[in-house]
Amino acid sequence: MKHFISIADLSRAEAISVLDTAEHMAETQSRSIRKLPTLVGTTVVNLFMEDSTRTRISFEAAAKRLSADVINFSAKGSSLSKGESLKDTALTLQAMGADAVVVRSSSSGAAHLLAHAGWIDQPIVNAGDGAHEHPTQAMLDAFTLRRHLVGEDRLGADLAGRRIVIVGDVLHSRVARSNVLLLTLLGAEVTLVAPPALVPVGADIWPCEVLYDLDDALAAQPDAVMMLRVQRERMIGGGFFPTPGEYSRRFALTTDRAARLPEHTIVLHPGPMNRGFEIAGDVADGRRSVITEQVANGVSVRMAVLYHLLASTSEET
């Protein structure tokens, strides 16, 4: 891999290879000394033009545990806030000797532009671009699902036959798009559930089923339910659902709904959560929840992505 921009760029074998590498990375994180010397002498730049907590800290921890130097570069307080173009920022990072750039942007396609415009030669990692994709989040979700649904003999395994339900604000969710692409690539059966106004145009050609009734979707006894954050800050003008109460009544994972799920079903959420709105607090903290585990797994998965992009270059120098 030269870049990590979109799940659509990955083959099934490449996706499984990253997941398997993440398993090895996770094993190292249980040691007393969790750092590996793999990327000594390399510099990873976190270019975050949009606010983030989990993703930024996760990438920083991943790079540092591989012994890379890390530069955190945010739009606020930088020349980007003064109107500097993405091109000039890229040229600056190139001149400073960045070996890889992790980019988060509110603009769909920003990571792809950085990777292919010819401004910078280094690997680009998409840490979320607008409502388009969030490929490393999908990888950590698949990693978490594989650990719970496949079992001990999971190296080299996919998610064939597993049923995954993804619920909520699909329209504004880069997480949903990446997960549909990755989970179906790995053989899972994916169902999207959302109010009609929160289903993107063209979702009918995605490799998944689209439903508008959560209870119908849960009646099919899924292996996992992934709740999405309702991104009210992107809902300019409103009108996506009648009232918050009506949304919660029809699409929230309530205590009652969770109690009707099969015993083995797990609950995921990419965070941050709107507790009591899209997911009940006791469900988010309950025995089915793997939400905190997702955050921990994010470090191992992002270590694996950086390893695949940079380790061979580092070993040659």
UniProtKB/TrEMBL annotation:
Carbamoyl phosphate binds at R54, T55, R104, H134, Q137, G271, P272. GO terms for molecular function: amino acid binding; aspartate carbamoyltransferase activity. It catalyses: carbamoyl phosphate + L-aspartate = N-carbamoyl-L-aspartate + phosphate + H(+). Heterododecamer (2C3:3R2) of six catalytic PyrB chains organized as two trimers (C3), and six regulatory PyrI chains organized as three dimers (R2). It comes from Brachybacterium nesterenkovii. Pfam families: OTCace, OTCace_N. L-aspartate binds at K82, R174, R229. It comes from the Bacteria. InterPro entries: Asp/Orn_carbamoyltranf_P-bd, Asp/Orn_carbamoylTrfase, Asp/Orn_carbamoylTrfase_sf, Asp_carbamoyltransf, Asp_carbamoyltransf_Asp/Orn-bd. Catalyzes the condensation of carbamoyl phosphate and aspartate to form carbamoyl aspartate and inorganic phosphate, the committed step in the de novo pyrimidine nucleotide biosynthesis pathway. PROSITE patterns: CARBAMOYLTRANSFERASE. It is an enzyme of class 2 (transferase). The keyword Transferase applies. Its EC number is 2.1.3.2. Residues 2-146 form the Aspartate/ornithine carbamoyltransferase carbamoyl-P binding domain. GO terms for biological process: 'de novo' pyrimidine nucleobase biosynthetic process; 'de novo' UMP biosynthetic process; amino acid metabolic process. Residues 161-309 form the Aspartate/ornithine carbamoyltransferase Asp/Orn-binding domain. The gene is pyrB. Keywords: Pyrimidine biosynthesis, Transferase. Belongs to the aspartate/ornithine carbamoyltransferase superfamily. ATCase family. Transmembrane segments: none annotated. The keyword Zinc-finger does not apply. NCBIfam families: asp_carb_tr, PRK00856.1. One of its GO terms (cellular component) is cytosol. Pathway: Pyrimidine metabolism; UMP biosynthesis via de novo pathway; (S)-dihydroorotate from bicarbonate: step 2/3. This is Aspartate carbamoyltransferase.
